[in-house]
Amino acid sequence: MILTVLFAAAAECPATLPEPYASDARSAGRTFLVAKAERTLAVYEGDQLVDGTCFSTQLGPGGDDGPKTRRGDLKTPEGWYRLTHRNPNSSYYRSLGVSYPNADDVTRSLAEGAITEDTAASLRASIARGQRASQGTAMGGDIFIHGNPWGSPFDWTLGCVAVMNDEMDVLYRLGDPGTSVIIVASLP
Asked: pLDDT for 76-100, tens place per residue?
């Protein structure tokens, strides 16, 4: 009998927020940085890693295949976002809403034919007003950073970013609405 044991690799995050993110005004203050290829989420205050906030993540199974452009593609978005709200009673332990889609996501989804010009115009207008864009379009929505109630080490979300529940407790305390979230394909 062969016994296979899976060990989760310890997350490794840069001690300082990498360029070009550190010099961008959108990352002033607190920033959550998700690196999809590395499967990490780290929290930075200014450009310094906050002690104890480098976590391994689980994404959507299509997570490495580029940015999210449509509902059901199982991809995690890529870009600059903000936390929109906290949910203490999430089906996935606790969650922090992410402001997907942003204007770049709308442009990508329109170019791929996932949404119409009218839908794109409506989404862009909401984003320009600082409102959360509609979550019910063909490009998908309801993207969260949330817990992992089953403790799965595998990519299993529908495009969200999952961490272990004890790590979610830390993120939940640090994740004020308005906090910057950067999701990148990989670290520079």
From this structure: 999 999 999 999 999 999 999 999 9
Helix ranges restricted to H, the chain: 103-111, 117-128, 165-174
Listed by start position, the domains of the chain span 25-184
34's tokens: 């998700």
Nearest to 124 by CA among 136, 134, 114, 138: 134
pLDDT in tens, 18-51: 999 999 998 889 999 999 999 999 999 999 999 9
Tell me which residue has tokens 């109630």: 149
3-state secondary structure of 123: helix
Cα–Cα distance, 79 to 102 (Å, whole number): 8
CB atoms within 10 A of CB 104: 14
> Under CATH, domain 25-184 is a member of which superfamily?
L,D-transpeptidase catalytic domain-like (2.40.440.10)
pTM: 0.91
Per residue in 1-17, pLDDT (tens digit) is 333 334 445 789 999 99
